[in-house]
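seq:
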Amino acid sequence: MTARSTRRTAAKTRIAAVGAIAVAGTMLLTACGDQTKNNDAGGSETAKTGTGTGTSSPADLLPADIKSKGVIKVGSDIAYPPVEFKDKSGETVGIDPDLAAALGKELGVEFKFENGTFDTLVTGLRSKRYDVAMSAMTDSKERQEGIDPETKKKVGEGVDFVDYFTAGVSIYTRKGDDKGIKTWSDLCGKKIAVQRNTVSHDLAKDESKKCAGGKKIAIEAFDTDLEAQTRIRSGGADAGSSDFPVAAYAVKTSGGGNDFQIVGDQVEAAPYGIAVAKGNDQLTKALKAAMDAIIKSGEYEKVIAKWGVEAGAVTEAKVNGGS
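struct:
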């Protein structure tokens, strides 16, 4: 969900090269997804996982209660194509569900996706509503330590992350109407629509503080990225921002490719992580081992190639690799 997280250390990185690759890749998607708002918070979809052998090292690391249930409950904001979204038949699809299916085969369990708004997922981990959160969530020190990125005060126990992908943040506008926007500083005096509590939201707030002459950025924050897209499409905002894979997918699919365009370069490269509540070390270790196993076996590469986001691939899973 960009990057979806607390603010990341600014970096114009190799992901700038993801542009051509990911846009071209998303053009090949067979699951086009319908860009409508999904309101069924609390509903669930199951990643197809297969039975698994239950005898591999990753499976042996699973906590006993999860082994006995045979299910890992996944909190996810299922409205962030192509990372996770519902296709026209209502099935949950995308990068995260496909990776979860591969992990499920390795661990011998079923990953069951449950829909929720992004900014409630960490709370859902603490309340044990979910076992993990997998939702394009950016791994950052603030999230690891339970620190509010704006006030810098501790607001929770924090979470641990198993990192599995890297993504940057992009700005996009209506096609043919960029309002002179190429960089974040160009947004001063203009209106941006973003998803609430994402890196894009944090970046907009930070950039607005730097704007001179009282020309602050007018920020509209929505529960989902799809709502933000609707606002931009209707002309209610000058620009939007989200993770590059998401922005690229919107550019390709919305209005048959006629609604949006990406402007400028990506910034804020950082890892996506599967979030696990503090203290669940066994589950964290099992997920890391399973992720490493699917990377080694080539299953990870198949998923990443399917969705055309090869430039964001990692060669090993890391625990709490965000900064």
